[in-house]
């Protein structure tokens, strides 16, 4: 079943020109697929690391909250409040990294990868149809 109106191609040279363009596009898509696969692998590693770091910082913050709640006013309490503020900032940064390079980004890369795979499949179908038309001319 033809997806494309290849009957509009009337000469072998027309078919060759279209096939050259499609082959170039196929190479570009294969390169993009490889690139996205590598990015996805990197994001998968990042997601694990970020999640572990985030859990550690959240546990540290909980510990500091407990310590600060039980300390009398003074230098030690001020010092622990400062530490807690730094930990909260670290949590903020990790949550931003999680969005940009963690689970959310990993899902986005998986979407990109599936889209490129479908484009490749469609390009192969297009090439096959044009090649069949070329053979029929």
Task: Characterize the structure shown.
This protein has 137 residues and is mainly alpha-helical. Helix content is 88%, strand content 0%. Helix 2 packs parallel to helix 3. The longest helix is centred in the first third of the chain and has 59 residues.
- How much helical structure, as a percent, in the residues? over 70%
State the total count of DSSP E strands. 0
The ordered string of helix (H) and strand (E) elements is: HHH
Task: Note the overall shape.
Answer: rod-shaped
- Helix count equals 3
Roughly what fraction of the amino acids lie in strands?
under 5%
Low-confidence stretches: none
Q: Which class do the helix and strand fractions yield?
A: mainly alpha
Largest sheet: none
Distance between the termini: 18 Å
Query: What does the radius of gyration come to?
Result: 28 Å
> Residue-averaged pLDDT, rounded?
94
